[in-house]
Each structure stands twice: as C-alpha cells, then as structure tokens.
Write a structure and sequence with these properties.
The longest helix has 16 residues. Helix content is about 35%, strand content about 25%. The protein has 2 domains: about 120 residues, Roll (CBS-domain), CATH 3.10.580.10; about 80 residues, VC0802-like, CATH 3.30.2130. The protein has 7 helices and 9 strands, in the order αββαβαββαβαββαβα. The strands form 3 sheets. A 4-stranded antiparallel sheet has the order 7-8-6-9, covered by helices on one side. Strands 3-4-5 form a 3-stranded mixed sheet.
Length: about 220
C-alpha cells in the first residue's frame, strides 16, 4: 500500500484568497488545527491554528501572511510509515501528500494512519503480547519465531525499540495466543529475558485459579 491510498476526503484546503477568519472557521467546523494551503493545485504551506490566533490581521487574506513558510509533506508513492514518521516528528494532525512536481494530491489524518497501523500490525487481533529485552547482537527474529512456533504460538507482528539509555533492544511480540506460559518458559530456557507479558503469563496459575474457584463452590 502507498501513501496515496490513505488520502482522506475529509480534509478541506485553504486558498490564498481565504481570510484568516475563514481559515479559523474551517478548522473549527472540521475539528482540525492544521489545514493545507493550495494555489492552482500546488502545495504552498500547512497553516496552523496557533499562527492564525497570533496573527493580528485575521480579516485579511492569507496571501499576505508572513508565516506561510512551513511545508511538511510526503510523496504519494511512499510508504505509510513515512507519513507516520513525519507526523510523529513534527507533531502533525494532518500530513499533506504531493507528487514529484509539488502538486497537491490530498492529505492524510493521523486518525487514518493510526487505523492503518492497527489493522496492518495485527493489533486488533486477539492474542497476548510478550516484551523481550536483549543486547542488539543477540537479536534473531528467526530464532525467536522458531521458539514460539515450537510451542504452537504464531507471531502476528513484531516491533523493535532501541533504548538509548541502556543500549538494549526491546522486542515486542504480538502473538495469536493469550495463554503464554509455555512459550515464556521456552524463551527463558533459551536465555531470553522476558521483560513484560500481557496475557496469561502461566497456564498453571490459570488452572490453579479455576481449581480454587471450583473448591470454593463445592464448599458452599
């Protein structure tokens, strides 16, 4: 999938002859604090609500504003991760999309990006999560996947975070199972440090809880 396929039809555009007041009204009506400024199909700038609020000429047209120098954008044929990275780095709620000639093609909202990440990473599927911590030199997705599969646990997705303080990797494993006791034990047997588990950490604990509930019921 390319960025162009995620363009949202709900993002309106401003033109140079719009006034600052009109721009603020459009932002309010669409619950957005950023809108692209387009002139003759060319991307000119991303207008921020804060800049408009600080402007003392909001009754004037945008073409005389002195703050139209901010032009973050992504190319239409790029990967959605490029848009996600830009949105994160520059705190954008709207990411303008252009072609190689700076023609404005539309924009992506961070809500659409979040939806894409959730659907494509498998986060909306049932299953537990395991977080491993390790030295970068010890990372092997092949071995981790092999250990999980030996316990009949499939990896739906993985995420890697490099901790700049410790220098270690935190590897997040999204699995297709919620009962993770056996695979956690296997990973630890292969000297992997299991930092966090979101799901049923041990199947034995789960069975013990059920047994205790049954005994309490019998003793009533």
């Amino acid at each position: 999938m390319t960025i162009e396929q995620l363009i949202s039809p709900s993002v309106p555009t401003l033109i140079p002859t719009d006034t600052g007041d009109k721009a603020l009204l459009m932002m309010d009506e669409n619950s957005m604090n950023q809108l692209p400024l387009v002139s003759e199909d060319k991307y000119m700038a991303l207008v921020h609500e804060n800049d408009l609020l600080d402007w003392d000429k909001t009754t004037a047209t945008l073409d005389i504003a002195d703050f139209l120098t901010y032009r973050p954008a992504v190319l239409a044929n790029g990967h959605p991760y490029d848009a996600l990275r830009l949105a994160h780095q520059q705190n954008l709620s709207v990411v303008p999309v252009i072609d190689n000639d700076n023609t404005y093609l539309g924009a992506i909202t961070t809500i659409e990006l979040l939806k894409y990440i959730t659907e494509k990473s498998g986060l909306d599927n049932p299953g537990g999560i395991i977080v491993l911590e390790m030295e970068p030199r010890n990372y092997s997705l092949y071995e981790i996947a092999r250990i999980c599969e030996s316990e009949e646990v499939l990896l739906i997705s993985t995420q890697i975070f490099s901790n700049r303080i410790t220098g270690k990797l935190e590897v997040t494993l999204k699995t297709n199972r919620t009962h993770l006791g056996a695979v956690v034990a296997s990973l630890e047997r292969y000297n992997y440090k299991v930092k966090e588990v979101f799901g049923d950490k041990t199947d034995n604990e789960n069975m013990t809880d059920r047994f205790n509930l049954l005994m309490n019921y019998i003793n009533m």
